[in-house]
Design goal:
heterodimer, A: four-stranded antiparallel sheet, 21 strands, 27% helix, globular, B: alpha+beta, five-stranded antiparallel sheet, rod-shaped
Chain lengths: 456, 595
C-alpha cells in the first residue's frame, strides 16, 4: 500500500512538473510558522473537554492523532484508520475494520487492542471490543451518526505509554509547551506518505494585532483573521481565505425558563437584538445573522428559523410589556469581538426595557458564547454543539434532514438558546504557502500544503 | 475655707482668667485667620479649576476642529449623503481618530443624530445622539457620558463639518479623571477630588476621583456630597480622617442644561491650624502652671504675713484658756495686728497680776476659815474640859471622897475630850497630806465594780442595789488610789444617805473633753442650800461628819484637772458628776506624748 502511494505521488509529481509552472510544484521541506490566539492546555484529545481544559484545535489535533473515519468536503464519512465499517441491525453494534500496516509515530503498529483502548477513553459510554483486525463498538442507543462522530478529533486514536501520547498522524510532536508553543515534525513513515512540510511551529496566545504584525513582517506564514477584520485584511493586500459562516455566536441561559414572565423576557431579549447590525456593522460582514444553530449551507433549512429572529431592531420608544427586567450577561472578556457584541446587545436590550449588566463571570444568568462548527456532518455538529452548550443531547432516528431539523427545533424550544450570528473563519496565507484548500468550515488541511520559494 | 486658701483661690483666679481669656482670643483669631486663608485658597482653586476646565475644553474643541478636516470625515459625509447610508466601514474610525487626537470620547453623528462611529462605545453605531437635536454649543461643557461599564463624567466640546451639503457632527471630550485633577497646581496641604453624580443613584465612594490614589474612608464625605448634589450650593464641613482633619469645601458641577453632574471637592488640611492651636494651648498651659505656682508662693507669703500673727494670737488665747496665763505673743508690726498682740500681752499680764492678788486673798480667807473652824472644833471639847476642871476644883474644896468620885468621872471625861481633840488634829493633818496624782492606765469601770465588791456587806445590810453602767470607754491615765478614794467617799456618802435602802448607780461615759463618771443615789436628795455649800470644807449635814469628805473628793478631782458637780433635788436622789479632762485621760494621748 505504502509503495503504491509513493509511486502514485511520484507519478503525480512528474505530471505536474511537465504541465504546471515550476512555482506550483509541491516542495518538500521547510518550516511553517503559525500564530494563533487560542491557548490549549493539553494535547490529549480525549482529555479535552469543552471548554476546560482548552483543547488543541481539531485541525491541529488531527495532524498528530488520526481518527478511524474522516469527513470529506461535504461532510460524508470516508475511511481514515478504518478502511470500512458496517452496522448490525438496530445501529447499536458497529464493526470497523482497521487499516493494515499503519504504525504509530514511536514505531509500534496500530492494532485493535490499542484502538479499542483509545476509544474507551474517549467515550466511556461505549463498549469497545477488539477483534483481530477490527473493533466492535456497541452503543446504548441506536447511533446512525456514529461514523461521523468518530471523525471528531476527540476520538483520535492515541497510544498512551508511560504518560507519552503518540498518534499515527502525518506529524509527530517535537516540542510541546502548554498554552505557548507546539512544534511538529514530519512523520516520515506515515501510511499515506510523508507530508510536504518538515516542521510546523505554532505559537499560541498571540493577540490579533501582533499576529498581523508578525505576518506582515514575514515572521509567520499562517495566521487567523478575526471575522470583523476580514475585509480590512483583504483590502490591505493580504491573501485571505474565509470559510462559510460557521461559528455560532449565541446567548445561552443558565437555566430553563422558570416562569411565564421569564419566558416573556427571553422572547423580548431575542426580539430586541438587531442581528443585522451585529453582522453587517460590528462584524463588518464577517458573519451572517441567524436564528438557527446550524448554518444554512450545512443544514439546508437554517432560513426557516429566521422567522423567529427579528431582523429589525425594536423602535426605541417601544415600551416594555412585562415591566423592567434585569439580567447579567457573561462574556469572555479577553475576546474584544465578544465584548463589542455584548455591548451592542446591552444597548438593544435597553430599548426593550431590559437592563443588562455585563460581567466576565461564568456565573451570569445568560452567557454570550462562540461555538466553532465541530463537524461537517450536520447531526454530529448539532450533537456536539448541544453538548458544548450543556443542552440536552439530540436524538436522530435517522440521518434525514427532517430528523435533524426536528432535533434542532427541539433544542431551540428549550428557550435556553438564542442564536445570533454565524461567523466566518478566515486565514491569512503567506505568499509562499501553496496547496491550500479552503473547506466550508475553514478548517486547515496542513498535511497538504507546502512552502514555495519566497516570492519577491 | 481658711484665709490662706481663700487667698490662694483669689490669686489663682487673678492669673487664670486673663490667661484663659488671652488663649481663647488668640485661638479664635488663629481659627478665623485659617478659615479666611482656606476660603481664599479654595476660591483660588475653584477659579483655577474653571480656568483649566475652559482651557482643556478649548483644547478639545481645537482637536475636534482639526479632526473634522481629515478625509475619513469627508467619507462619512459622502456616505451620509446616500439614500441608504452604510456606516459599517467607520466602525473603528472614531477609536482610531480618538487615539490620534488624544481624546477619551469621540463620536460622529449625521444630521439625524445617528451615530456613525463611537470611540467610547463602538457598539452604539446606529443609535441617536441627543445633543445633535440642539444647536452646537460654542463653549465646552460637562457631560455625563454613558459607557458600557456605566456613566462617567467628561469635559466635552462639539463641532460640525459640512460635506456635500450634509453636516457631520463631532462630539468629543476628555474624561474628568485623576489625570485631569493632577494638572491642577495645589498649595501644600490641599487636595482636590471629583465626585461623579449619577442620576437616581445614592452616594458611592467608587464615584469619587482623587488625584492621588490614597485609600481613605470616603464614606465620610457622603453627607457633604449629598448636600451639594441635592441643593446645588457650595457647602463646607470639617472631616476627621484617621491621619488628621481637613476642611472640605464642595461645589456643584453643572452640565450644559444646568443639571448637577458632579461635585468639585477641595480639601485643605487643618494640620497647620491644629498645630498652631496646640502650640497656643501648650503655651497657655505652661503659663497657667507657672502662674498657679506663682499664686501659691504669693498667697503663702501674703497669708504668712497676714495670718501668722492672728494664728499666734489664737494659739496664745487657747493657752490662756488652758490656764497658762504667762503666755505672750510676739509683737512684729505696728499695724492693727501688732496693736492686738500688745493688747493681748497686757491682758495676760493683768490676769496674772489679778490672779496673784486673788490667791493672796483666798489664802487669807482660807486661814481665817481655818482659824474659825479650828476655833469652832476646838471650842467644843475645850468647854467640857473647862467644866470638868472646874468641877474637880470645886470637889477638892468640898471633900476628898467627892473629889475622888469627881476625879474618876472627870478623868474619863478629860480623856474622851482630849481624844476628840487628837482626832480633830489628825483629820486636819490628813487633809494637809493629800498626795499629788501619779497617773497610770486605769479602767474606771473595773475600779467601780471593785468598789461595789468592797462595800458589798454594807450595801447588803442597808438593802442597797449597786450598779455599774459603762460605755465603751478606754482606760484613762489617772491615779488609781486617788480615784478609788474619791469614788469610795461618794459611795459611802450615798450609803449613809439611804438608811432605808435604795440604788447606787455608777455610770461611766464619754465626755466631749474626756470621761464623765456619774455616781447617783436614790436617797432623799439635797436642798438648794445644801447643794450650794456641799463642797465647802468642814461643812457637813451629819452629826458626826467633819465636812472634809467631799472636800477631799473635790481636791482629788481638781488635782486631775477635772471638775465635779452635783445634781440633786429633794426627794429625787443625788448625782455627783466627775469630769476628767481628755489631756490627762487618754492613754493614747499619754503614749503619744511619751513617744
Amino acid at each position: 500500500m505504502k509503495r503504491f502511494l509513493s509511486i502514485s505521488i511520484a507519478a503525480a509529481s512528474l505530471v505536474l512538473a511537465l504541465e504546471a509552472p515550476a512555482a506550483l510544484r509541491p516542495h518538500y521541506g521547510g518550516t511553517l510558522r503559525i500564530l494563533r490566539e487560542d491557548t490549549p492546555e493539553t494535547l490529549d484529545p480525549a482529555a479535552a473537554g469543552h471548554p476546560v481544559p482548552p483543547a488543541l484545535g481539531q485541525d491541529l489535533s488531527q495532524l498528530i492523532f488520526e481518527t478511524l473515519v474522516k469527513l470529506d468536503d461535504r461532510g460524508r464519512p470516508r475511511p481514515g484508520l478504518a478502511v470500512s465499517w458496517e452496522a448490525e441491525p438496530g445501529m447499536q453494534r458497529w464493526h470497523f475494520r482497521l487499516r493494515q500496516s499503519v504504525h504509530f509515530q514511536d514505531g509500534s503498529p496500530l492494532d485493535a487492542v490499542t484502538v479499542a483502548s483509545s476509544l474507551r477513553t474517549s467515550n466511556p459510554a461505549w463498549k469497545v471490543l477488539p477483534d483481530q483486525d477490527s473493533v466492535l463498538i456497541e452503543t446504548r442507543r441506536a447511533e446512525p451518526e456514529l461514523p461521523g462522530e468518530l471523525a471528531l478529533a476527540r476520538h483520535g486514536i492515541v497510544r498512551r505509554a508511560q504518560e507519552r501520547l503518540t498518534g499515527t498522524g502525518p506529524f509527530s510532536v517535537e516540542h510541546w509547551e502548554a498554552k505557548k508553543q507546539l512544534v511538529l515534525v514530519a512523520n516520515e513513515d506515515h501510511w499515506a506518505g510523508r507530508p510536504y512540510l518538515d516542521r510546523i511551529e505554532i505559537r499560541f496566545g498571540e493577540d490579533s494585532r501582533h499576529e498581523l504584525m508578525a505576518f506582515d513582517l514575514a515572521q509567520a506564514e499562517l495566521i487567523e483573521i478575526d471575522p470583523q477584520n476580514i475585509h480590512r485584511a483583504e483590502s490591505e493586500g493580504r491573501t485571505i481565505r474565509a470559510s462559510e459562516p460557521e461559528e455560532l455566536v449565541a446567548l445561552v441561559f443558565q437555566d430553563p425558563p422558570r416562569s411565564e414572565s421569564d419566558l416573556v423576557r427571553r422572547n423580548r431579549l431575542a426580539a430586541s437584538i438587531d442581528r443585522t447590525t451585529l453582522a453587517n456593522v460590528l462584524l463588518q460582514a464577517g458573519g451572517e445573522p441567524t436564528g438557527a444553530i446550524l448554518p444554512t449551507w450545512l443544514s439546508g433549512y437554517g432560513f426557516l428559523f429566521q422567522s423567529t429572529a427579528n431582523r429589525e431592531p425594536l423602535p426605541p420608544d417601544r415600551g416594555p410589556a412585562a415591566g423592567p427586567m434585569r439580567l447579567t450577561l457573561g462574556y469572555p472578556d479577553s475576546d474584544p469581538l465578544m465584548r463589542l457584541l455584548a455591548e451592542r446587545i446591552l444597548l438593544d436590550a435597553r430599548q426593550a426595557a431590559i437592563e443588562i449588566a455585563l460581567t466576565g463571570s461564568a456565573e451570569a444568568q445568560v452567557r454570550l458564547v462562540r461555538v466553532e462548527l465541530p463537524s461537517l456532518e450536520a447531526n454530529v455538529a448539532l450533537g456536539e454543539i448541544a453538548r458544548f452548550l450543556g443542552l440536552s443531547t439530540p436524538e436522530f432516528p435517522d440521518l434525514s434532514p427532517s430528523s435533524i431539523y426536528r432535533a434542532e427545533q427541539d433544542l431551540l424550544a428549550t428557550q435556553r438558546l438564542i442564536p445570533l450570528v454565524h461567523l466566518r473563519r478566515a486565514t491569512a496565507l503567506g505568499r509562499n504557502l501553496e496547496g491550500w484548500r479552503t473547506l466550508p468550515d475553514g478548517s486547515w488541511q496542513l498535511e497538504d500544503v507546502w512552502l514555495s520559494a519566497e516570492k519577491p | 475655707m481658711s484665709f490662706r486658701r481663700r487667698l490662694l483661690v483669689l490669686f489663682s483666679l487673678a492669673v487664670l482668667v486673663p490667661i484663659a481669656a488671652v488663649t481663647v482670643i488668640v485661638s479664635t483669631l488663629a481659627r478665623r485667620a485659617f478659615e479666611r486663608s482656606n476660603d481664599e485658597q479654595t476660591a483660588a482653586l475653584v477659579t483655577e479649576f474653571q480656568r483649566e476646565f475652559e482651557r482643556r475644553g478649548e483644547d478639545v474643541g481645537r482637536r475636534l476642529q482639526s479632526t473634522a478636516e481629515i478625509p475619513e470625515v469627508t467619507q462619512m459625509g459622502v456616505s451620509a449623503a446616500r439614500a441608504a447610508p452604510d456606516y459599517s466601514p467607520f466602525l473603528d474610525t472614531a477609536q482610531v481618530l480618538a487615539r490620534a487626537g488624544r481624546l477619551d470620547f469621540l463620536e460622529f453623528a449625521d444630521e439625524r443624530g445617528t451615530i456613525i462611529s463611537s470611540a467610547q462605545w463602538p457598539a452604539k453605531v446606529g443609535y441617536r445622539e441627543p445633543l445633535v437635536a440642539g444647536a452646537v454649543p460654542p463653549a465646552p461643557f460637562l457631560k455625563e457620558e454613558e459607557l458600557a461599564s456605566g456613566p462617567v463624567l467628561g469635559l466635552f466640546a462639539m463641532r460640525s463639518a459640512e460635506i456635500e451639503g450634509r453636516r457631520i457632527y463631532l462630539i468629543g471630550g476628555i474624561r474628568l479623571d485623576r489625570g485631569f485633577l493632577s494638572t491642577l497646581a495645589l498649595p501644600a496641604g490641599m487636595r482636590v477630588l471629583l465626585y461623579e453624580n449619577l442620576p437616581g443613584q445614592s452616594f458611592s465612594p467608587a464615584r469619587l476621583i482623587s488625584a492621588n490614589a490614597a485609600a481613605e474612608d470616603s464614606g465620610k464625605l457622603r453627607e457633604l456630597v449629598e448636600r451639594v448634589t441635592r441643593q446645588g450650593s457650595q457647602s463646607q464641613a470639617v472631616i476627621h480622617w484617621s491621619w488628621g482633619d481637613e476642611t472640605v469645601t464642595a461645589s456643584a458641577l453643572r452640565g450644559a442644561r444646568e443639571e448637577i453632574l458632579g461635585a468639585l471637592i477641595i480639601a485643605n488640611s487643618r494640620r497647620i491650624y491644629l498645630e498652631l492651636r496646640n502650640q497656643i494651648r501648650s503655651a497657655a498651659l505652661l503659663a497657667l502652671a507657672a502662674a498657679i505656682g506663682l499664686a501659691i508662693v504669693a498667697s503663702s507669703w501674703a497669708a504668712a504675713r497676714v495670718t501668722k500673727p492672728v494664728e499666734d494670737l489664737a494659739h496664745a488665747a487657747r493657752a490662756v484658756a488652758a490656764g497658762d496665763w504667762t503666755t505672750a505673743v510676739d509683737v512684729r508690726s505696728r499695724d492693727e495686728i501688732g496693736e492686738l498682740a500688745g493688747a493681748f500681752n497686757r491682758m495676760t499680764a493683768q490676769l496674772v497680776s489679778q490672779q496673784d492678788r486673788l490667791v493672796q486673798a483666798e489664802r487669807v480667807a482660807a486661814w481665817r476659815e481655818l482659824a474659825r473652824r479650828l476655833a469652832h472644833e476646838l471650842k467644843n471639847p475645850l468647854f467640857p474640859l473647862q467644866l470638868t476642871v472646874e468641877n474637880l476644883l470645886r470637889a477638892r474644896e468640898q471633900s476628898d471622897q467627892l473629889f475622888d468620885e469627881t476625879f474618876r468621872e472627870s478623868a474619863a471625861t478629860l480623856l474622851a475630850e482630849i481624844g476628840r481633840l487628837k482626832a480633830i488634829v489628825a483629820r486636819f493633818s490628813d487633809f494637809s497630806k493629800m498626795p499629788q496624782p501619779q497617773p497610770e492606765s486605769l479602767d474606771v469601770a473595773e475600779l467601780a465594780r471593785s468598789i461595789g465588791k468592797l462595800y458589798q456587806a454594807q450595801l447588803a445590810r442597808a438593802h442597797i442595789d449597786f450598779r455599774v453602767e459603762a460605755e465603751n470607754v478606754r482606760p484613762i491615765m489617772a491615779d488609781p488610789e486617788l480615784i478609788d478614794r474619791a469614788l469610795s467617799n461618794l459611795v459611802l456618802n450615798a450609803i449613809e444617805a439611804m438608811p432605808q435602802g435604795g440604788t447606787i448607780t455608777i455610770c461611766i461615759r464619754r465626755h466631749p473633753t474626756g470621761v464623765a463618771i456619774e455616781v447617783a443615789d436614790t436617797g432623799p436628795g439635797l436642798t438648794p442650800g445644801e447643794r450650794a455649800r456641799i463642797f465647802t470644807p468642814y461643812y457637813t449635814s451629819k452629826p458626826e461628819g467633819t465636812g472634809l469628805g467631799l472636800a477631799i473628793v473635790q481636791s482629788i478631782v481638781s488635782d486631775h484637772r477635772g471638775r465635779i458637780s452635783v445634781e440633786s433635788e429633794p426627794g429625787r436622789g443625788t448625782t455627783f458628776i466627775i469630769e476628767l479632762p481628755d489631756a490627762l485621760a487618754r492613754v493614747s494621748s499619754a503614749q503619744g506624748s511619751d513617744g
